[in-house]
Automatic annotation (TrEMBL), chains A, B:
Official protein name in the record: TetR/AcrR family transcriptional regulator
Keyword Cell division appears in the UniProt entry: no
PROSITE patterns: HTH_TETR_2
Transcription regulation recorded as keyword: yes
Keywords tagged on the record: DNA-binding, Transcription, Transcription regulation
DNA-binding region: 34-53
Domain HTH tetR-type: residue ranges: 12-71
Length: 188, 188
DNA sequence: GCACTAAACGGAGACAGTCCCCGGTTATCT
DNA sequence: AGATAACCGGGGACTGTCTCCGTTTAGTGC
């Protein structure tokens, strides 16, 4: 990248602290947690926060990249353990659970699959789409998934399922049911 | 109700003005439109706004009750024109379109189907659920809808579909497709 | 018409959040 | 050690929320 010179030691330290504080705050108060408060928790001035992360989105993303990468990586594990169709469903289930449980991750995952969003092209957005792509394609080859589905559409629908489950109880206990309603359809 | 004495003329006038201003502002800027700005547009002090509508929710609801009642009423029209299964799908389609197009109505419709929400028990929440109930039951009797579906679940899933469509393009052009994916399922 | 009163008004102000700016500090290189 | 580029951090302008309370006004009885 353009990172010619490595980050200065203090900069790197503050960066890390902010990330930790942000993860906690976003998980606690959702995506609208106070940024100045995050800076305070990290023991850092708010200027420092805004320099490292120009927007709320940027911080949100940075705070949860690894968690999202983990979900993406989980796709391949599941692909080894289960037949394609089941692997996809199981993965979507875990994805939805993550979406709901970690309060501020929903906005992030949402904008990752939003058409025209700046986040759509960043690292974690693409690895989610690639992970979904592999599972979707495998399931389609196997014949357990409609041919006309794009991976990103599956992700969007999963986001919809997460939303619906959240409305139901806020804890994600309905995910499995709503996901199976989606896969099987609403007809008898 | 407890409305022993009719509202004073000036109160009623301001109430109406606020409602109009709110509808415009919420449609323009979404559910987070500035309340003080709404008061200003209505030519009214902010105290007046907060007296009439203690919470943002209350104003949001008041601003869109009639529109929501209209959607609920539309259910019965469709029930006359179409066979039950199609009527339900068509209604959900219109519902999703409304959810997306009028920015600010999404939050309202969402909390109407949220478990434990205060809005769940108010007038427009119940009439939505009743309208959905009639269509759902008819479709189930007809045999084109799974027996184990609760009306409120259908509303929640529709909300999910609206969310997914919004992610896709923000204009609702994908509603029909995502709705049919839901009804038919993701399998071939 | 007029005076009275309860209801309603409205805007000042306390508070919280966002974000930028810039004087001061510090890590790193020579 | 000294130079310098990078970085720090908090003060402050701005916007939005929501309450409090002195002032105004609609409605009522005479």
């Amino acid at each position: 990248m353009s990172q010619v010179r490595p980050m200065r030691a203090d900069a790197r330290r503050n960066y890390e602290r902010l990330l930790k504080a942000a993860a906690v705050a976003f998980a606690e108060h959702g995506e609208n947690a106070s940024l100045d408060d995050i800076a305070k928790r990290a023991g850092v001035g708010s200027g420092t926060l805004y320099r490292h992360f120009p927007t709320r989105q940027a911080l949100l993303e940075a705070a949860y990249v690894d968690r999202i990468e983990a979900i993406a990586a989980r796709a391949d594990e599941l692909a080894k353990e289960l037949p394609p169709g089941e692997a996809l469903v199981e993965w979507l289930n875990e994805l939805c659970a993550g979406t709901i449980q970690v309060r501020g991750m929903k906005a992030l995952l949402g904008s990752a699959v939003t058409d025209g969003s700046s986040l759509a092209v960043t690292a974690c957005g693409t690895s989610m789409k690639e992970a979904a792509g592999r599972l979707v394609e495998a399931a389609q080859r196997e014949g357990t998934l409609r041919e006309d589905l794009e991976p990103i559409e599956v992700l969007r629908l999963a986001h919809g399922v997460a939303t619906a489950s959240e409305l139901a109880d806020g804890r994600g206990e309905h995910i499995r049911r709503y996901l199976s309603l989606l896969t099987d359809g609403l007809r008898p």
